[in-house]
Amino acid sequence: MQQDFALRDGDFRKISSLVMEATGIVIDDRKRAFIHARLGRRLRALGLANFGEYRQVLDGPDGDTERHVLLNAITTNHTSFFREPHHFEYLAKTVVPAIIRNKTESKRRLRIWSAGCSTGEEAYSLAMTLADFQLPLANWDIKILATDLDSSAIAHATAGLYDAERAQSIPPQFRQRYVTVQPDGRTSMNTVLRSPITFKPLNLLNDWPMRGPFDIIFCCNVAVYFDKPAQRRLFDRCADMLKPDGWLVVGHAESLQNLTDRFDLVGRTVYRRTK
Ligand SMILES: C[S@@+](CC[C@H](N)C(=O)[O-])C[C@H]1O[C@@H](n2cnc3c(N)ncnc32)[C@H](O)[C@@H]1O
Predict the structure, then answer these.
(1) What is the whole-number distance in angstroms between the Cα of residue 76 and the centre of ligand 1?
(2) Helix axis angle, 63-74 relative to 32-46, nearest 10°?
């Protein structure tokens, strides 16, 4: 018989403040059932009797490891290939042509960051969009950095293998050219997509070890889980990490309005750095 653990107020507060401190993700009362379900599974796996015992694990000698598991368990990894198709159209129709026009060096450099990349679909969608230009690669230096807090999501992204159902959202013309259906029915990403991408674990609240600057940052559906001060700080740091006229792309429910004056809105949830 499955045990149903009660999530008392004190346990809920402890867990939500731990998550807030570590990730910036706000866990308010509306998320209580979600936390209960996600962590109830974890308690069962550990053979614990209640959330009080779970708090002891978090405070005990294995606390660091368990906090890591907890954060992986509560992050919302929902994503898909070409999740918001207009973002990839913007990259193809505006960003790449601008770089082609503006660059004078013999080698054209393009740096993209998928910040909060989850299981990698966003980064591979970026790589497919670029691959489709059939740019003369000898003249181009293209790198896509893709990072996420959740180490299991990064492991999935690095493996680059997706269930048939997930691969459905890859447009047919890309599916034919850039991915391969494996004998077990899963879809793997071809080398042409993998080679420009580096997947790395990174907590956006911590120091950012990369130097940048990036031409474009995709930071979609991540800040929506943060409170306003954390959003403000994140977008400000994104501005610092971009070229002076670089682009920042955010998710459909996100806006920079009243958070920072360092960007102008130039497209649907697409911003351009001005300061
Ligand atoms: C809903 S997914 C968005 C994935 C993708 N960008 C998209 O739009 O489809 C949000 C991702 O943000 C990550 N995340 C949440 N807080 C984070 C933090 N503090 N640092 C880095 N990543 C974080 C989660 O692990 C999750 O994979």
Answers:
(1) 7
(2) 130
| Nearest to 114, CA basis, from 154, 85, 162, 159 | 154
Where do the domains of the chain lie?
A: 9-74, 85-273
pLDDT tens track for 207-245: 999 999 999 999 999 999 999 999 999 999 999 999 999
Q: Give distance in angstroms: CA of 42 to centre of ligand 1.
A: 21
* pLDDT tens digits, 49-105: 999 999 999 999 999 999 999 999 999 999 999 999 999 999 999 999 998 887 666
Residue of 119, 145, 148, 225 with the most ligand 1 atoms within 8 Å of its CB, for mutation: 148
pTM reported for the whole predicted model: 0.94
What type of residue is 168? Answer: Q
CATH number of 9-74: 1.10.155.10
- Residue range 85-273, CATH number: 3.40.50.150
C-alpha to C-alpha distance for 129 and 93, rounded to whole angstroms: 10
